[in-house]
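Budget justification aside, the reviewers requested a transparent look at the raw inputs and outputs of the sequence design task funded under Objective 1. We therefore reproduce one unedited record. The lines immediately below are the structure tokens for a 706-residue chain.
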């Protein structure tokens, strides 16, 4: 009776949601997608009808990952609140027909508009921009067939007032850049393929005949990111030619991200010389050939730098300290640093040094002391081996960076020096990762409980201590220094992978378990950890890291067998917030048990599996797609035949496309010669964010685009 009376008292004293203050309700409603607020929630009662149209909720409309939105919803949304929208983000809405853009004309007060990844023709763009007189920030794609001569005078007038432009190029063109005469921020993404679909070679010289040239006199930020390919390099040089003639006086961020070799020319030398004389920078990234062997960094001036990227440069630690860090002066402002692939950046000099030699801890210590406010740090794709000196391990020094939010490290950098030295050469962990005759080894039993795992781990474990000190870390990447994905871009699939670093041989389950201390972790990448024997550490991560949204695992343990499958399935049962999952492992079996475990991830939206000689069960995939209603991307590159892949892909599209407008399905043999042709049709949002493997920590300056 006492229990019943207490329950009835709680019910009578229960708080009705509508009794909360307007401020609290507005905060709650801010987490609801705008389409749901306007089209559904506001129809429930009068109070919510008023609150859902509050300016704080309608000022900025984000549709970029609202995969359930369709043309009709966008039309109704613009009709209801179009005049109240000042910022509209439709980036990556590839599934919406181009006619959807016509409804944006109702947003007369738009100041910021992001249409990257949307289908927009020259004529539609002209009609839309002609009505948006207040627009100051614009992001668009320039596709084959774009014709700037079709832009009306009213459209060009709007573009002349635009201060920020992000332009993704799929064809050689200046796009709308010549019309934007007041530009202060210019972001260029070059995604031009060297060959057309018909097989014809493309050339950047197609742009030479264009009459208008870019205007950069007011430019403050210039950023260019190039996909692999010669044409992209050719086209970006035409954009840079104008800069080399006259460098903007207010330029404070100059960033060019170019893979592979991008040779320096006389024009770029003149540009860099002009920058050294006339500007003071806050952010810098240059192709490696422009920095290697030059004294450029010695002459460039920096004000309050917030971002540096020396990715893949041969910059030595001595030069880094002397020319960039400047003896520790004025670097408290630096929040993001990318040293990925910079193999000598923690050594005093690089002339006679081998990439595998020990680092100089004093250089790293100077870096940590000088850049104490770092939030994003990338040290991947290099051999950063610590010496046996007590207290000077890389992990111990990095633990001082208390503000870190994202971190990328090579596998060999996190191992305890004593543990790696004491390992006998005959240890099973050093079994070559080949596909020949299997060697039978003993499997060590690891505890599944976090407390037991911690008790087994030596208290002085430097990586365990590092994870314990970086409590607020949100993104972590641990990637083998010699790892390369089996599916690089614009090239055939790689058939042979390089063996892991010798220092990395002892990194396995206990190190993975240490990651479970990161309770705020949202994104995790693990690649080429050779000593994974059971994967038990993954279960700990699933239990403790409840905020995990993105998980990428590649080449863990022995290459001839997926030794961590059981632990992975146990882990997935706890990942309720997981949205993106990428798995790359030879001989992966995507069967009924795996997909049954994956079905527990109720928030999953995107799945990518890359597996040489991997297999799948079509019925299990179909059942998974039926159970996980949020999944809108399914990419599988396996060892199955082309017929099996095509049939499964068609079945998924036929069964689920109608109710999931954003559904994107690619199932294809990994080693098929036409893989690159299939890849080029994948929406850039998925290709860049999950399908292609890469390190993403400090890849771009923070808050580069809204």
């Amino acid at each position: 009776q006492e229990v019943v009376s207490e329950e009835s008292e709680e019910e009578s004293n229960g708080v009705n949601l509508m009794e909360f203050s307007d401020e609290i309700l507005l905060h709650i409603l801010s987490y609801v997608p705008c389409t749901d607020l306007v089209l559904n929630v506001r129809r429930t009662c009068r109070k919510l009808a008023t609150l859902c149209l509050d300016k704080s909720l309608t000022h900025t409309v984000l549709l970029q990952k609202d995969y359930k939105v369709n043309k009709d919803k966008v039309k109704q949304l613009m009709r209801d609140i179009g005049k109240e929208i000042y910022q509209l983000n439709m980036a990556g809405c590839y599934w919406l027909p181009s006619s959807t853009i016509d409804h944006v004309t109702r947003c007369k007060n738009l100041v910021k508009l992001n249409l990257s990844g949307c289908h927009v023709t020259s004529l539609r763009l002209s009609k839309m921009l002609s009505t948006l007189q207040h627009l100051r920030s614009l992001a668009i794609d320039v596709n084959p067939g774009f014709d700037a001569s079709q832009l009306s005078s009213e459209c060009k007038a709007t573009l002349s007032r635009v201060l920020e432009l992000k332009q993704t190029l799929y064809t050689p063109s200046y796009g709308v850049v010549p019309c934007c005469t007041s530009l202060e921020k210019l972001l260029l993404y070059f995604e031009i393929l060297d060959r057309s679909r018909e097989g014809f070679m493309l050339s950047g010289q197609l742009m030479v005949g264009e009459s208008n040239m870019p205007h950069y006199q007011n430019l403050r930020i210039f950023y260019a990111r190039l996909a692999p390919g010669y044409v992209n390099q050719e086209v970006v040089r035409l954009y840079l030619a104008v800069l080399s003639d006259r460098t903007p006086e207010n330029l404070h961020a100059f960033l060019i991200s170019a893979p592979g070799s991008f040779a320096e020319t006389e024009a770029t030398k003149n540009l860099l010389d002009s920058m050294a004389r006339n500007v003071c920078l806050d952010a810098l990234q240059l192709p490696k050939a422009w920095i290697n062997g030059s004294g450029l960094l010695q002459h460039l001036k920096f004000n309050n730098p917030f971002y540096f990227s020396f990715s893949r440069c041969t910059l030595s630690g001595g030069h880094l300290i002397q020319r960039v860090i400047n003896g520790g002066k004025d670097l408290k402002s630096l929040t993001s640093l990318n040293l990925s692939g910079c193999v000598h950046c923690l050594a005093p000099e690089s002339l006679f040094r081998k990439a595998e030699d020990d680092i100089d801890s004093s250089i790293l210590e100077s870096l940590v002391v000088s850049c104490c406010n770092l939030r994003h740090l990338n040290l991947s794709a290099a051999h950063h081996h610590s010496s046996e000196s007590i207290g000077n391990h890389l992990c111990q020094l990095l633990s001082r960076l208390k503000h870190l939010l994202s971190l990328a490290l090579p596998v060999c950098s996190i191992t305890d020096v004593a543990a790696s030295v004491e390992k006998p050469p005959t240890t099973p962990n050093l079994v070559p990762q080949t596909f020949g005759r299997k060697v039978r080894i003993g499997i060590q039993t690891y505890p599944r409980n976090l407390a037991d795992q911690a008790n087994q781990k030596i208290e002085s474990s430097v990586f365990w201590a590092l994870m314990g000190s970086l409590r607020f870390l949100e993104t972590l990447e641990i990637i083998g220094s010699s790892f390369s994905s089996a599916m690089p871009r614009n090239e055939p699939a790689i058939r042979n992978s390089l063996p892991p670093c010798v220092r990395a041989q002892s990194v396995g389950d206990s190190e993975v378990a240490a990651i479970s201390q990161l309770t705020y972790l949202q994104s995790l990448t693990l690649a080429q950890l050779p000593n994974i024997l059971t994967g038990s550490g993954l279960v700990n991560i699933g239990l403790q890291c409840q905020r995990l949204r993105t998980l990428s695992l590649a080449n863990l343990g022995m290459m001839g067998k997926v030794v961590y499958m059981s632990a992975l399935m146990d882990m997935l049962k706890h990942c309720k917030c997981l949205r993106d999952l990428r798995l790359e492992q030879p001989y992966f079996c995507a069967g009924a048990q795996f997909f049954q475990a994956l079905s527990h991830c109720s928030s999953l939206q995107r799945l990518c599996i890359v597996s040489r000689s991997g297999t799948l069960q079509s019925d299990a995939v179909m059942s998974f797609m039926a159970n996980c209603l949020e999944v809108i991307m399914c990419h599988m590159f396996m060892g199955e035949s082309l017929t099996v892949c095509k049939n499964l892909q068609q079945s998924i599209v036929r069964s689920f496309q109608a109710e999931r407008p954003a559904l994107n399905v690619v199932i294809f043999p990994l080693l098929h010669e036409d893989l690159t042709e299939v890849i080029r049709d994948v929406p850039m949002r998925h290709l860049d964010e999950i399908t292609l493997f890469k390190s993403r920590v400090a890849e771009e300056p923070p808050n580069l685009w809204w």
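The first strand starts at residue 60 and ends at 62. The first helix runs from residue 2 to 12. Computational costs for records of this kind are itemized in the attached budget.
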